[in-house]
């Protein structure tokens, strides 16, 4: 992917519903955004980091009622819980927006008028179902396809946005901007949603009151009181926060957003509705929408009724903010689901933070004090460690590429390569033996090298774990302003004075009740599963059953056969398969096979291949995978 450093960087979190207090899912999005904001600040970009609360809609109105409060008092109370939490977590946001602010409401109204004047809004009636929990209109279903909750029936006057008119422009945009949706494998579900037919979107509601009233200019002819649909209202926050069409000081030079973090459940709203609204307003589209996966707790979905909702403040008070941040960013590949448990956080912290990073720092401080009274000097270290220093720079470069894809797990893993290399180098050099042989110069070289790995590593770590990185840098009397020197300009130090700090990441103990859990699980031998993927990822892999209807021998190839496979589509697929050594063409005709159907077509021996036949190969040869019973051509394997 192209690595572009902007001079301006605009990053957003979703704005959180104030129907309940913040939980780990909210903390996750916010911490990822904070990491990106901090990284870009270090790079010298001018950053605008936006977060806030989504305070209108039927769900909030109902929650207020349940709490016997009026909506406005209720939202004030809950919004402050979010703001207080982010403040106590030192989140570096530039603005905390609340959709109940008058400036935001003005932006929404003015945008509504613009869309209306453009001819993109018309009056009609919505008749269908609605999910109050997701605040989303759902046709033809009894339960919400996203959250599984029961739907309510709606029949009400409504203004509609001509979403269907934007179908082609949206598809063209995704095509021309293949990295718009991150991870890119999520693009397919968005495209499928559109290809199934985009209906016009109901954008006002009349059966409750708690929302932005539609402007008089538009509502003149209406006999009902309309409030703006909460998703149109909410999405506009990314504009209103910058002073779009309101009285705030304009910061529209930050628009469009560089990256917008969302959970996978709200990708549709951000990758379809939001770009269509922006097209209607003649505004540029965001550069990336990055969708993360969902957290479960001890393997179960979090829910208030089960009482297993993880409170981020409790985790932070037990393990510390940076351990929590590290866990969230490192534990799951960006985009995939993750499971939170006390045990997972303890294991992750002990394995990476205590055993690798903490241990490295302790080794340096221990040897530095013992052998050199904390004063390390070596002019020759850079030539002695030329290869290792190159490895460090390589890891840094690799890590920096990952940040642009929001692959923060890989970013951290690349930084850990630096710390692993440093630990390994100490083990290999055996400085305790060198000292006995009076080879002080060699040990000084080693320790200056280690110091430089820690300095560079700490600057890279700073966006993810700011407080810990600062502590590491304080060992070398450095502040948090050296990213340019040590990372961008690749500076190294040849002389270091070590300051001692208390051990950074003491090993954590697994609590008694967790030990019990481990015991009860002990019967199942743990398996090490490589390259784990989640369900959603697998759902994007399209394997279908098909029947081979024609086989052609390619005379120039020893291994390849040209097949025509009926997958129940408008025409059979042409598939070039490397099975010639194992099958006679005749025995293949009529055979049902499993085909990887959404593999990018490629040319093999000059022939286009539109899929891959699945087969297994062992010592006895190759065997094509075939369903146990005959299946309809085109049936999906899941
Ligand atoms: N208000 C809307 C967003 C409007 S943005 C214009 C909303 N709010 S929310 O509070 O319900 O969710 C906010 C974010 O939290 C979403 O990105 C959602 O994916 C995320 N999470 C909620 N529960 C989660 C987990 N269990 N795990 C990870 N993130 C999840 O949607």
Automatic annotation (TrEMBL):
Residues in TRNA-binding domain copies: 537-638
Cofactor note: Binds 1 zinc ion per subunit.
Keyword Aminoacyl-tRNA synthetase among record annotations: yes
Catalysis performed (reactions): tRNA(Met) + L-methionine + ATP = L-methionyl-tRNA(Met) + AMP + diphosphate
One example GO MF annotation: methionine-tRNA ligase activity
Short sequence motif 'KMSKS' region: positions: 301-305
Cofactor requirements of the protein: Zn(2+)
SUPFAM superfamilies: Anticodon-binding domain of a subclass of class I aminoacyl-tRNA synthetases (SSF47323), Nucleic acid-binding proteins (SSF50249), Nucleotidylyl transferase (SSF52374)
Places the protein is found: Cytoplasm
Matches recorded under Pfam families: tRNA-synt_1e, tRNA-synt_1g, tRNA_bind
Location of the motif 'HIGH' region: 16-26
UniProt keyword list: Aminoacyl-tRNA synthetase, ATP-binding, Cytoplasm, Ligase, Metal-binding, Nucleotide-binding, Protein biosynthesis, RNA-binding, tRNA-binding, Zinc
InterPro entries noted in UniProt: Met-tRNA-synth_bsu_C (IPR004495), Met-tRNA_synth (IPR014758), Met-tRNA_synth_2 (IPR023457), Methionyl/Leucyl_tRNA_Synth (IPR015413), MetRS_core (IPR033911), NA-bd_OB-fold (IPR012340), Rossmann-like_a/b/a_fold (IPR014729), tRNA-bd_dom (IPR002547)
Cross-referenced Gene3D superfamilies: 2.170.220.10, HUPs (3.40.50.620), Isoleucyl-tRNA Synthetase, Domain 1 (1.10.730.10), Nucleic acid-binding proteins (2.40.50.140)
EC numbers, comma separated: 6.1.1.10
Tagged with keyword tRNA-binding: yes
Sites where the protein binds Zn(2+): 131, 134, 144, 147
Family under the similarity heading: Belongs to the class-I aminoacyl-tRNA synthetase family. MetG type 2A subfamily.
Function: Is required not only for elongation of protein synthesis but also for the initiation of all mRNA translation through initiator tRNA(fMet) aminoacylation.
Subunit structure, interactors included: Homodimer.
Listed name of the protein: Methionine--tRNA ligase
């Amino acid at each position: 992917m192209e690595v572009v450093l902007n001079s301006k960087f605009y990053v957003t979190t979703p704005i959180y519903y104030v129907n309940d207090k913040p939980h780990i899912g909210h903390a996750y999005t916010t911490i990822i955004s904070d990491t990106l904001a901090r990284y870009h600040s270090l790079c010298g970009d001018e950053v605008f980091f936006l977060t806030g609360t989504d305070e209108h809609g039927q769900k909030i109105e109902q929650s207020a009622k349940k709490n016997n409060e009026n909506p406005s008092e209720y939202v004030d109370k809950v919004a402050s819980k979010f703001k207080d939490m982010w403040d106590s977590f030192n989140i570096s946001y530039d603005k905390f927006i609340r959709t109940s602010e008058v400036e935001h409401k003005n932006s929404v109204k003015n945008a509504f008028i613009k869309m209306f004047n453009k001819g993109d809004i018309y009056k009609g009636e919505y008749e269908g179902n609605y999910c109050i929990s997701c605040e989303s209109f759902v046709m033809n279903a009894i339960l919400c396809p996203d959250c599984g909750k029961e739907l309510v029936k709606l029949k009400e006057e409504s203004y509609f946005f001509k979403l269907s008119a934007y179908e082609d422009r949206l598809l063209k945009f995704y095509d021309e901007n293949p990295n718009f949706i991150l991870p890119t494998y999520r693009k397919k579900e968005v495209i499928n949603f559109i290809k199934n037919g985009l209906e016009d979107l109901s954008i006002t509601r009349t059966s409750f009151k708690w929302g932005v009233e539609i402007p008089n200019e538009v509502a003149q002819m209406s006999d009902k009181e309309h409030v703006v649909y909460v998703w149109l209202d909410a999405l506009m926050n990314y504009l209103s926060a910058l002073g779009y069409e309101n009285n705030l000081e304009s910061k529209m030079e930050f628009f469009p957003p560089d990256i917008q973090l969302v959970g996978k459940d709200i990708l549709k709203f951000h990758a379809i509705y939001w770009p269509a609204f922006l097209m209607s307003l003649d505004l540029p589209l965001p550069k990336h929408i990055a969708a993360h996966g969902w957290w479960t707790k001890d393997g179960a979905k979090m829910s208030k009724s089960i009482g297993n909702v993880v409170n981020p403040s409790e985790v932070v008070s037990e393990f510390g903010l940076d351990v929590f941040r590290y866990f969230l960013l490192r534990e799951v590949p960006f985009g995939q689901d993750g499971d939170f448990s006390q045990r997972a956080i303890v294991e992750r912290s002990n394995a990476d933070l205590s055993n690798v990073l903490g241990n490295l720092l302790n080794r340096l401080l221990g040897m530095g004090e013992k052998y050199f009274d904390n004063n390390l000097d070596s002019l020759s270290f850079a030539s002695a460690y030329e290869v290792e220093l190159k490895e460090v720079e390589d890891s840094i470069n690799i890590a920096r590429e990952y940040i642009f894809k929001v692959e923060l797990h890989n970013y951290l893993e690349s930084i850990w390569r630096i710390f692993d290399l440093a630990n390994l180098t100490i083990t290999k050099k055996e400085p305790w033996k060198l000292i006995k042989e009076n080879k002080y110069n060699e040990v000084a070289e080693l320790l200056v090298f280690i110091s430089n790995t820690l300095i560079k590593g700490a600057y890279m770590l700073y966006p993810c774990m700011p407080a810990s990185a600062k502590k590491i840098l304080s060992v070398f009397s450095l502040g948090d302003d050296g990213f340019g020197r040590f990372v961008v300009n690749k500076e190294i130090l040849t002389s270091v004075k070590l300051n001692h700090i208390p051990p950074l990441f003491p090993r954590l103990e697994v609590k008694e009740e967790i030990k019990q859990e481990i015991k009860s699980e002990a019967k199942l031998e743990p398996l090490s599963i490589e390259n784990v993927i989640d369900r959603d990822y697998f759902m994007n892999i399209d394997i279908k059953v098909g029947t081979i209807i024609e086989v052609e021998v390619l005379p120039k190839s020893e291994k390849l056969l040209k097949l025509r496979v009926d997958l129940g589509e408008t025409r059979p697929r042409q598939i070039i398969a490397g099975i010639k050594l194992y099958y006679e063409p005749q025995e293949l005709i009529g055979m049902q096979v499993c085909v990887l159907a959404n593999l990018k077509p490629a040319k093999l021996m000059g022939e286009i291949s539109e899929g891959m036949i699945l087969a297994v190969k062992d010592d006895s040869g190759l065997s094509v995978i075939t369903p146990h019973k005959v299946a309809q051509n085109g049936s999906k394997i899941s």
